[in-house]
Amino acid sequence: xxxxVYAFVGYCIxxxxxxxxxxxxxxxxxxxGPIPPAxxxxxxxxxxxxxxxxxxxxxxxxxxxKSDFYEESYYYTNKLLHxxxxxxxxxxxxxxxxxIDRLLIHDPALRAQIQVYAVRSSxxxxxxxxxxxxxxxxxxxxxxxxxxxxxxxxxxxIAHFSRQHPIDIYLQGEYRKEARKNILGKREEYPLFERxxxxxxxxxxxxxxxxxLYRKTPYDYQGALGAFDLIQTAELPFGNTDFIxxxxxxxxxxxxxxxxxxxxxxxxxxxxxxxxxxxxxxxTSVRKKYLSDRIAAYGxxxxxxxxxxxxxxxxxxxxxxxxxxxxxxxxxxxYEPALYHAFLLSQRYPKHQxxxxxxxxxxxxxxxxxxxxxxxxxxxxxxxxxxxxxxxxYLMEQLSPDELTTLAMLHSLECWQNRGTAGRMAAMxxxxxxxxxxxxVTDVDYFSPNVSGGEPDNFVQNALGDLYQDSAFxxxxxxxxxxxxxxxxxxxxxxxxxxxxxxxQRELALKGFNLGLKKIVLVEPYYQKxxxxxxxxxxxxxxxxxxxxxxxxxxxxASACGIQHxxxxxxxxxxxxxxxxxxxxxxNEWFNEQGLHQGVDMISTNHNEIYRLRKKYxxxxxxxxxxxxxxxxxxxxxxxxxxxxxxxxxxPIALYYxxxxxxxxxxxxxxxxxxxxxxxxxxPKKMRLKDKDDLxxxxxxxxxxxxxxx
Length: 710
What we know:
Elements: H1 2-23, H2 37-40, H3 43-52, H4 60-82, H5 91-103, H6 108-113, E1 115-119, E2 126-128, E3 133-137, H7 138-141, H8 147-162, H9 165-171, H10 200-215, H11 222-232, H12 284-298, H13 311-331, H14 335-346, H15 353-371, H16 390-398, H17 401-419, H18 424-439, H19 471-496, H20 501-511, E4 519-531, H21 540-560, E5 564-568, H22 578-597, H23 607-617, E6 621-632, H24 637-646, H25 651-659, E7 662-673, E8 678-687, H26 693-708
Parallel strand pairs: 1-3, 4-5, 4-6
Antiparallel strand pairs: 2-3, 6-7, 7-8
């Protein structure tokens, strides 16, 4: 009885929370309540605990392999947990946990081993770790048709965990070593969580074990088969409504007919399952047929339910996930998917501010990249789109950079006016006005309405509509166009006298940068050690320890240099520090986003949240420091030793060169000024030296000294 009372109370609380998150414009999903232990324990502690649980008679060779797996697995799992992508105690994760409770109601021992969390990712995927973490992407939740489909997918992942597939794959040598590369730069989270690492045998075993678990519930078996259909269409939008170009028209801006004439071909089935299996991974149709045959053997008929938890709750949760995807697409530079996604949601929420701002930012991103001549970096050819969004891609291709910039400016301005306060939309509007001055126009006469009644001289001539009579708007537009022209002229002058990048770096290293800062926020440093001579190249536990030591060294030297400092790092947190955890998530999100843009100066998607941190910590400057230390074999070592034998006096030097490895340490420092929205410093320092403690101590002190010295 008590359990049902708790469930009812939790449901009521969740219902209110979910409703708030869907219908309030400023709310995004965020982690709440105490931080779970899995987020707080270090990789070293987790590895030690896992090794202690191994049987005493475990063969040493197997024990060593398992130790390697634990180090790698726990290291990357912790990186993901600390990134802020994984949510806890939020409405979606709570819903998933309740669903797991129902699936494992008859197996409390297995339930006690499993923790489930929602993950901020647009990919329609879920994955299980060897530690019992079930991680479900919001992209998957946004696409499921009913709870039964989601339940079977969870059963499938529970089967992977219960049968210990992740470590089995590793021990059998089937783990793809190349997946270790580009850990933070991939759209998918981390390499150990790639679903395609499993073989056909493991996937079919997980399907069958998951089916046996699913079969014990009242769910209809069609929910399990529907899950395979979902996998097959995972890359498609959640809806198939034809895009209407008028959705983007605003003020006096109207698209010419020639911009909207894209024909929509008849939808063709995905070709995924018409080709033979690649490698050992089974196709979706093969897996579906295999399970269908097993279901037929039971003689089952459609008679179950598609919902065990309240149906309304499922649809609310799915709606929350769909709204979260607006932000995730923008972060991933998937601007056109974001536009179409907002278009689909606007069919139900035509005046929702989040959707309007999603449209504005997506157009802003496309315009910024178009003005830099990099439009095709964020756009896909419309001819390869065979769905209802094809007209959208065609329209974006027809728009010239000045037309796209004007369209984005008008949408940003409307959102700014709706907000009534300065913030991201205001910053974007001003930035787009400057973009017009930098790249396209000389004054506001460019937008002079066509009063003759004939065809306008250009597409945007009547775009401003009533705004052309708004004196306050014209003053702002004139000011920012002039600012843009000044920026363009200054760039041309600098271009004429630009010095080689290597020369500038050398001068910076010799003379220093001397910023004169008195207060900084030190954001969790990054440290990674590589030994490329070994098959296990990344030294995981040592890297984690070095990160913690580097922060302590930075703090010590900041104090010695008279710099007030605040440190934000995951290893400093305890269960009650959820606010600091959320702040780290915001900063990680911002930093990763800046890395994607690479030379395109963008207002960030979480601009407002970054400004909130400035006010909270009363500090403008946030500092990121990272180190990469590598050990490699010497080049031409045999030749040098041979030369030493020939020239005998040089033999000691040649032997030292040939028998010792080469060391290289790269330190980078990035300092961001939130007030101006610009980097104050992006400084790499490359040293052909081993990362000894005295070297790092000296280099980090020099960094803090130059930050403090006026």
